Amino acid sequence: GGKDRRSGLILTIPLCLEQTSMDELSVTLDYLLSIPSEKCKARGFTVIVDGRKSQWNVVKTVVLMLQNVVPAEVSLVCVVKPDEFWDKKVTHFCFWKEKDRLGFEVILVSANKLTRYIEPCQLTEDFGGTLTYDHMDWLNKRLVFEKFTKESTSLLDELALINNGSDKGTQEKERSIDLNFLPSVDPETVLQTGHELLSELQQRRFNGSDGGVSWSPMDDELLAQPQVMKLLDSLREQYTRYQEVCRQRSKRTQLEEIQQKVMQVVNWLEGPGSEQLRTQWGIGDSIRASQALQQKHEEIESQHSEWFAVYVELNQQIAALLNAGDEEDLVELKALQQQLSDVCYRQASQLEFRQNLLQAALEFHSVAQDLSQQLDGLLGMLCVDVAPADGASIQQTLKLLEEKLKSVDLGLQGLREKGQSLLDQISNQASWAYGKDVTIENKENVDHIQGVMEDMQLRKQRCEDMVDVRRLKMLQMVQLFKCEEDAAQAVEWLSELLDALLKTHIRLGDDAQETKVLLEKHRKFVDVAQSTYDYGRQLLQATVVLCQSLRCTSRSSGDTLPRLNRVWKQFTITSEERVHRLETAVAFHSSAEKILQECPEQPEAFNEMEQFDEIEAVGKSLLDRLTVPVVYPDGSEQYFGSPSDMASAAEHIREKMKLVSLKKQQLRQPEATTPES
């Protein structure tokens, strides 16, 4: 990279102790001298032969070899000698002797005196200079440049061959070029290498060295820059043309592939695909049969899905080519796209129609099976004899029966809807859907659907008739149990009335008026009991009629009726006793009150003392009756109220009897005093 005072390039030849191959050195010099431009060569070279580590004979041979390699370009040869070992006279005499023959001046100089001939800034550190130089870095850059030059030149030839062959457009050319259509190296890689090399060369041109000292680029690098730029420009131009050629060929190849794939899809869909659908027309006669047909149809759909996926991919490719906007291909692409879409949509519609038909058939058979199971359950329930324990269980059974019948009605309605929907789909199954007349196959399907619906209707009608009979019987049983329950309730009510009569109807009244009121209330009380008894009798008579109708034995004839009669007999006896006591009390209170209310100034009214005796007799009879229990036909006895209640009622009667007795005594006193006077 250094220059002498004449601006000539400096060439340094370092020699070593080992044997130096003159052939290799000659080749190396030839290569190095080929790098500079002719203008640089015209300024001549200054050659520095570093012989400090070599022998004189080797140095002499190298100097003589320079005459044969670069005689015209060499202007000065500086042989750097070692400090000792060489004979100065011999060496000086030899070089002086060969000066005219060599054609250039040869001088022997020590390393420290080399600056007399060359500026220090143009010498490397090996010779005491300041020129920065990294041989390995220069070598690596040179190798990159050589590789780039070789690859780019070869690539340019290949791209030019490909591009020119494509321009001719003949089939023979295309066939011959197709064999070597791809370049031997990647153009992108070569371009990237060239840009990196150019960037490195330009960076070294404007930046200093790593040490920060200003550095002038070597002439070979300055010379390499325009070469690299020129090669890059040519590569970009040829590569751009190559990309366009590839794009056109790729588009043509893609179009041909699309045409081939489109015809494959169309031929399969119109051939094997349509044939598969032609063989599938039935709907099955059960859930299992419909499911088997659905599974078969899914297999057919799976095969179609693979071709539909190809259709989607082709459609996207065609759309991409249409968006590219190449006028010459638009018509052909649109025609392919339309043909492919028509066939695929028609086949997809047929698949969807078949799938919907099978789904409707499966739903129809599912509803039919559910309805059949419901009818079987209802029939089984109707075939079992009803033997409920009470009216509530009958009501529950009747409710369950009605719910099942309602469920059957809804099921039959759903079956009709599903069947009609399925019939509508079958009627819309035109011959174009499968490519043949399917009237015969459709008739079989229609007959099957109508047969299933008619059979379900007949079974449902038979169940309805049986439900009507069972409903009537169960309603009669409900009425029977109701009558029995109400009759038992009537017995309970009558028993409660008897209990109330014995425990609460105790008072006999403090006077005649109150006793009459109690007597009137008692009669009304008896009327209520009589109505209760009559109601129970009517209910028991109704149970007899219902049992005869149902041909069953009533439990009331052996249980409820005797209880009703027994309670009523007890109530009648008790009521008569109550009436007798109240009537006796009325007579007692009326007579006593009449006597007590009479004025003592009218003694003529009490001339007959028998009235007092009669009142006393009635009062005693009433008191005696209060202590006597009511005796029933079965020998059982019952008292009115508690002993304290009876004692209270008797106390009122005794007090009134005392008043009557006192009145009697008052009336007798005047009769006793009259004779004395």
UniProtKB/TrEMBL annotation:
Give the source's domain of life in one word.
Answer: Eukaryota
Entry GO MF terms? phosphatidylinositol-3,4-bisphosphate binding; phosphatidylinositol-3,5-bisphosphate binding; phosphatidylinositol-3-phosphate binding; phosphatidylinositol-4,5-bisphosphate binding; phosphatidylinositol-4-phosphate binding; phosphatidylinositol-5-phosphate binding
UniProt keywords (A-Z) are: Repeat
Tell me where in this chain the CRAL-TRIO domain is found. Answer: 1-135
What the entry lists under PROSITE patterns is as follows: CRAL_TRIO
InterPro entries named among the record's database cross-references: CRAL-TRIO_dom, Spectrin_SESTD1
Q: What Pfam families does its record include?
A: CRAL_TRIO_2 (PF13716), Spectrin_SESTD1 (PF24915)
Q: Which family does it belong to?
A: Belongs to the SOLO family.
**What is this protein identified as?**
SESD1 protein
Gene name of this polypeptide:
Sestd1
